[in-house]
Design goal:
The protein has about 160 residues and is mostly helical. About 70% of the residues lie in helices and about 0% in strands. It contains seven helices and no strands. Helix 1 packs antiparallel against helix 2, helix 3 packs antiparallel against helix 5 and helix 6 crosses helix 7.
Amino acid sequence: MGKEESFTRIIRENEGVIFKITTIYTDNGQDQKDLYQEIVYQLWKSFDSFRNESKISTWMYRIALNTAIGQLKKSKKHSNTTGIDQVILKQTENYDSEFENRLKMVYEHIHQLNILEKGLILLLLEGKKYEEIAEITGLSETNVGTRISRIKQKLKSRILKK
């Protein structure tokens, strides 16, 4: 399998990673598409340097988060508002409107976090262990644990105020 085919397969298998990051770090559909495209471009540029020393998802998260953070810093149009239409839930026969409303509220509070906090909580929600989060972010495991604990407390207090 050639380089392009391998890359395309990896992107298809892991596009949820990119989608989640673009959802957390953008406020509208067009910005989300632009960021998605930029992340894929950065992944392509870095594809030859991936040495299989970590999981492919770890490598993708690192590049995607760095790209998203870099784009936010460049644009300097960071907003604390969130379009409700960004939280997409698949309609199923087990549709639960109360769950959807609570999920939207959580995403609204996540959007209010700072850049690093958003990334950390996203990785935690993805089920990543502190060790892998540390590898992705470059923080120590202890620092990751401390920051996540503080983020959870911050989210809890904000949600309980509503």
